[in-house]
Amino acid sequence: MNGYKGRLSHSATAGIAAALWSVACGMPAMAENAPPFAALLRQTENAPRPAESAAEVRRAQGLERQARAMPNPTIGVMTENVAGGAPFSGFDRAETTMQWSQPIELGGKRSARIAAGEAGVTAARARDRDARVGYAFDLARAYATVEIADQRIDLAEDEVEEGENDLRAAKALVDAGKEARLRALQAEASLNTVRAELDVAKAARITALARLSALAGVEEPYTGLTAPILDGAPEAAQPVGPVDPLAASSYLAAQADRDAAEHRLTAERRRTTPDVTVNIGVRRLQYENATALVGGVTIPLRLFDRNRGNIQASTAEVEAADARLARAKYEAEANARIALAQIDAGEARVLAAQHSLETAQETYRLARIAYEAGKSPLLELLTARHGLGLARGVLLDARAARFEARADLARLQGRAVTGDIIP
Question: pTM score, two decimals?
């Protein structure tokens, strides 16, 4: 892996350049390399995406707390028989009543509301874990994309270097009269092509770093990576025991959402039971100079509002949650089978690509020796070099696909790609 051994990687080169520039300008270096993935995942616990799902949990906890609240009583004061016609023109016959009214919930409404609130908290926590598992997966992919971009630059630079060597060899043969001027032009055109590919690879690296920085929620974009992830800790990414698709965070979140919807439906049905308001108070009879107790019960009549609309909406919500749960189950089962198959296929693909690369390297070496000795045309050398570049790219693509399969499997198991369990 040329980006991390044998020479300075482009991330390290960019970091050194940024530091030197900052020193030359008398300013502190603001941008920095991204830390190793495990450390980055810990450092970004408060990044926008995890923070959003954590806030949803706190929101559900607030609603659950509110669901436990009992109805507030009311207190009122009313004066009657004043400022009217005789004999009620003054305040001599005033009757003043102070009354306390307490609504009493019947039909299990409060318990159903509390159960719905608790289920909402459980669902929010399940969604939060699923969001954190998904975030770890996306962060790992973004991290690996930067590493892949670094290595594509390394491959492109290798091809540029080899193209320059081929061009020098072609010019030497042209100057010696052993090749036509056309051969040097062909070698130069091939070199220009790989130089353009190098520019494309550098642009892709800038894009990958920008996306990683945005996902991590950092102010200054990262300039590179401090540790590889593409081939790191492969033993930690291997499945341990059977993969249970029904233990996937996405399925558990859908199941919790379904349970919460069922509790909300129960709460809406319980709301159809009318509440009773108990009234008790004291009345002051001014004319008689006496005090008396008053009391009563108020029961609403279910003539117009029977909560049918809310019940219908909650019933549809349960049906939708059932459909999402079924879809999550099928997707989790399919993803488990796909991930396990891709793990095996990825390993086989990497091995095959490594063998192909070894063959292409030997082919290019022999073609170069033959061309410099004047025993083969330039076209064979360029073809061999092109085949070597393709083989290197195929190997990098195979390693990227293997990483993707490991990351998919880790997500199904509720782990980061490094093997850490996400609580």
Answer: 0.79
